[in-house]
Amino acid sequence: MPLSSVTNRHSPPGTTREIRQTLRQLYTKAPWKDSLYIQGRAWLIDFETIDLMIAENSRILDLACGYGLLANYISLSQPGRTVHGVDLSPRRIKIARQTIQDRARISFSMGDITQFTPSDYDAITFIDSLHYFDLPTQRMILQRCFESLSPQGKLILREASKKPSWKHALNYAHEWIMTHSHFTPTRDKKIQLNFLNGAQWEALLRSVGFEAVKTIPPRHWAPYTDTFYVGYKKSPPYA
Ligand SMILES: C[S@@+](CC[C@H](N)C(=O)[O-])C[C@H]1O[C@@H](n2cnc3c(N)ncnc32)[C@H](O)[C@@H]1O
Asked: Which helix (H) or strand (E) covers residue 38, if one does?
């Protein structure tokens, strides 16, 4: 089915509300269990904030893309972007691929992000997944992200910070249940969740070479402490 039959237009795709509506329609055929989760994720992810940080016609890698929600949002918003999503879960990648339809600039592949080889992207998005890895692995993945970015590229990392602690406890409990039930697959079956505090996430980004890091706090109504840490390869604004 061509995407135009879902959107009733080619481009531009319209307001953020319309883009979210189109996004929902892409997943109507997902099995109910996945569909419930997808709707929850769509509510929890501030796609609009991420979208505004990425230029038109950029090349973007979405690491641990899950069902491809963010990849789809940023692609629907600016069809000139080239977006690739990678995730460990064959089930999630299968559902993500079913959303592609007739779009040539979006793709998904199954893979372990600890194995990804540096390439060339203008932006890398990495949402709610770095805490699955121990500190040396976190550093190694971030190092590869740094090496994969163009000179003015940026990494848009979203991770839970530890304050306020009651919200962080919710984050932790949610992730513990999702990973220990294996609804969210992880490389190591006996997974330990490795959350850092805000200053430590920032320091980790700087330690692999990011010249500047911008922190965007969670929306005040959000139930979790999900915070954006945007790593700039070179300090903005660019000349
Ligand atoms: C909390 S979900 C986030 C998914 C997506 N980023 C989103 O925001 O909806 C975490 C994702 O990390 C993926 N994942 C876990 N370990 C991975 C690994 N080693 N390589 C690639 N993906 C991984 C899981 O399959 C899952 O889809």
From this structure: helix 32-44
pLDDT digits (tens, 9 = 90+) for 127-173: 999 999 999 999 999 999 999 999 999 999 999 988 888 989 998 99
pLDDT, one tens digit per residue, over 5-27 is 433 334 456 799 999 999 999 99
- Which tokens is 158 given? 């979203």
Q: Which atom of ligand 1 is nearest to the CA of 125?
A: 6
End-to-end alpha-carbon separation of the chain, Å?
44
- Using DSSP's 3-state secondary structure scheme, residue 168 falls into helix
Tokens standing for 133?
């890895």
Under 8 Å between Cβ of 91 and 69: no
Q: Which two tokens stand for residue 25?
A: 């329609």
Asked whether 72 lines ligand 1 (CB < 6 A), one says no
Q: Identify the pLDDT of residue 236.
A: 80
* Fold designation for 128-239: Rossmann fold (3.40.50)
> What is the best residue among 113, 129, 181 to mutate for testing ligand 1's pocket, by most ligand atoms within 8 Å of CB?
129
**Domain ranges, ordered by start, for the chain:** 128-239
> Within 10 A of 2 (CB to CB), how many other CB atoms are there?
10
Q: Is residue 89 within 6 Å of ligand 1 at its C-beta?
A: yes
Q: Is 41 in the pocket of ligand 1 (CB under 6 A)?
A: yes
The whole-model pTM stands at: 0.92
- CA-based torsion, 97, 70, 213, 225: positive or negative: negative
- Estimate to the nearest angstrom the gap between the alpha carbon of 7 and the chain centroid: 23
Specify the residue with its C-alpha closest to ligand 1, atom 4: 66
